[in-house]
Amino acid sequence: MIDRRAAQRRDNGVTKKLYVKTYGCQMNVYDSARMAEVLAAHGYAATGTPEDADLVILNTCHIREKAAEKVYSELGRLNRIKQARRMAGQAMMLAVGGCVGQAEGEELLRRAPFVDLVMGPQNYHRLPDLLRRAEARATVDTEFPSESKFDHLPEVGGGAAADHGVSAFLTIQEGCDRFCTFCVVPYTRGAEYSRPPEDVEREARRLIALGAREITLLGQNVNAYHGAGEGGEMSLAGLIHRLAELDGLKRLRYTTSHPRDLSADLIAAHGDVARLMPFLHLPVQSGSDRILKAMNRQHTADDYRRLIEKLRRARPDIALSSDFITGFPGETEAEFEATLALAREIDFAQAFSFKYSARPGTPAADSPDQLGDEIKSARLAALQTILARSQAAFNATMVGRTLEVLFERPGRHANQLLGRSAYGQWVHAEMPGDYRGRCADILITEAHTNSLAGQPALRHAAAEAQAAPGAFEERPPA
Ligand code: SAH
Ligand code: SF4
Ligand code: F3S
Q1: 176 in contact with ligand 2, CB cutoff 6 A
Q2: Residue 429: which domain range?
Q3: Model pLDDT, residue 12
């Protein structure tokens, strides 16, 4: 593989420079790495700035208006760089991928005619071909291809371009058939598709060989996963049981889940699979049944409460995270109060909340009952006060506890490393060696809003004194 790449570069005579900027969700992070891999095989190496790039790709997000508008201001900035390069006799190709690319297509070229290529997330395997076409004239490819890109993308890690890290993402499911009335995803990512379990396992093995110790399985509606495999159809729970057996893997996570697709076998897996981390992001959006219905979420607030109860019964220490929307069309004060009540009640360890943003083409955008920005903002602030308090309280309970931390990268200070607890919190600690990719028990001494700090727990310090470094690295996960 590497030899072929080197040969291609020799043929081309030069290594071209690629700058990818990623917006939006974790799936875009995964996709950006895959695009870099496709292009590495065609002589592109990553660069850290757009100024010296031969090709710039914006991997965009369309979820809220603000996210989409950011893309246009960034394009304006990049156009100035592109013109400056042209004056200096250098070319720069400008490509827009991701969900804005898919949603806007030709329209994007009208607003930003200096863009060379617009493509949707299902077409990344065609990138080299699309770039060739874009060299001749501006190109748009937002068709949903009949073939799956996953069957045509090069193997993960196929190129020095992408570093998948200690904690890697792996897309197992893409697209969504749920059609929540506020959401663009079913239109930008297309119909739900699950990768076969054999493909997923192969990729997981590759990621582990490349140094991953934690894998987060990704999907827009990941718990709707139903991969057709050699032994028939497999659920997400089945896949988790299978991947948890892989040597070298310490931790598994999955995101994002829909409450309606949280099956009994998946809840049970939280109790049965030690490597499945005690953390779940389960968006609820609202605590009002009427609003949930208008959102087409297909569950009630009490259904959600019952799911949380079941999860806590299966895994008592499970930490919960959620998404909320304030100011959905027609939301009354009483309905918003129901959301506040639910937020107070559940003790979320973490949560994301957003003002409703009307997205063109979605049913809720056509509702005559749109609320003003002031109400949406006031409600968001009230909700965020509760959620921040709940997150701070959760983090505070960690002080004095010993948590297993999987270290991922250097921190800001000397000897400081940054890793994650099983509950997903960032933990800083000064470590007696390079623990990246390794787990250690950390006594938590400080809790902040978004992170924890600690030091190696005493029994480790004692073990360290007696044994060679690394002697406790292969402990089974908690
Ligand atoms: N697939 C995930 C969510 C993807 S979008 C799921 O099913 O939960 C992430 C979050 O953005 C959503 O959970 C929702 O809270 C928020 N969101 C989506 N569309 C939005 C919109 N039009 N306005 C405001 N927030 C939105
Ligand atoms: Fe969007 Fe998630 Fe609803 Fe699908 S389930 S439509 S991705 S919010
Ligand atoms: Fe954004 Fe598309 Fe992800 S709209 S949140 S990048 S699926």
Answers
A1: yes
A2: 402-466
A3: 54
